[in-house]
Design a protein that fits this description.
Number of strands: 9
CATH superfamily of the largest domain: Alpha/Beta hydrolase fold, catalytic domain
Distance between the termini: 31 Å
Structural class: alpha/beta
Strand order of the largest sheet: 1-3-2-4-5-8-9
CATH architecture of the largest domain: 3-Layer(aba) Sandwich
CATH class of the largest domain: Alpha Beta
Largest sheet: 7 strands, mixed
Radius of gyration: 18 Å
């Protein structure tokens, strides 16, 4: 599984930072921030399997996604790196730290905990499936259909970044939608492994319920040296809702 990636910076004197996006996302989600972080680090933004321009696979699990990232690091001769992951990417980052601790310098997890979450993407999946790809002629038409399932315009805009045209001009999904639906149980699962005692930072939004206080015992059981920071007036999409606050916490921790 050769993952697609974007690279920012190529200074051998700098430490490395690998960024992993969330469900329905891609490497481009962090493009703007990665350019800023490149002042201090060589930054790699990856497309996880079944997302972005990375290969599609019939399987989707955190052990597999963690192994994909390790394969990427091996291919690029990256012995060790800071790893930042948001949401699904955060669980992938945790899985890497729990299974390959010697490859992780510092770990940063964006608004996700090492727990099993209930299925809450049913309406999104229904909406994406309801779009007749061979009949629509614009993203506007797709958005009109999707709006019957997803109220938030910003969420729909994000989801529809995955709608692209093929060589014949027909719309298709860049994400592997059938596999994401079929394998969702594995996406909602919790990472597992030997506790990681390296420096770890969890960043959560005060308006998000993904990292509630109830999950702190699970966090500390697997990441005993973790600290948890909360961004006020912020939901799940920390890096886009509060980029300055998010970046300050990240860079202060890494540097």
């Amino acid at each position: 599984m050769k993952l697609n990636f974007d690279q920012y910076g190529d200074d051998p004197s700098k430490k490395l930072l690998i960024i992993l996006h969330g469900l329905y996302g891609s490497a481009s989600n962090f493009r703007g921030l990665a350019k800023i972080y490149a002042a201090d680090f060589n930054v790699y933004c990856l497309d996880l399997r079944n997302h972005g321009s990375s290969p599609h696979s019939d399987q989707m699990s955190y052990p597999l996604m963690a192994a994909d990232v390790i394969e990427f690091m091996d291919d690029q001769n990256l012995e060790k790196a800071h790893i930042l992951g948001h949401s699904m990417g955060g669980k992938t980052a945790m899985q890497i730290a729990l299974h390959f601790p010697d490859r992780v310098d510092k770990l940063v997890v964006g608004d996700i905990a090492p727990v099993v979450y209930p299925h809450h993407h049913e309406r999104i999946f229904e909406g994406l499936q309801a779009i007749p790809l061979d009949q629509i002629s614009s993203r506007g038409e797709a958005d009109k259909i999707l709006s019957q399932y997803v109220d938030e315009a910003g969420v729909r805009l994000f989801l529809l970044t995955n709608l692209v045209r093929n060589d014949e001009g027909i719309f298709q999904w860049r994400i592997n939608l059938p596999v994401l639906i079929r394998e969702y149980e594995h996406i909602s699962a919790a990472p597992d492994g030997t506790p990681f005692d390296g420096e770890t930072l969890f960043i959560r939004g005060d308006r998000s319920d993904y990292v509630s206080d109830d999950y702190v015992p699970e966090i500390l059981a697997l990441f005993p040296n973790a600290k948890i920071e909360t961004i006020d007036h912020c939901g799940h999409w920390l890096h886009s809702e509060k980029p300055k606050e998010f970046s300050k916490l990240l860079l202060d921790f890494l540097k």
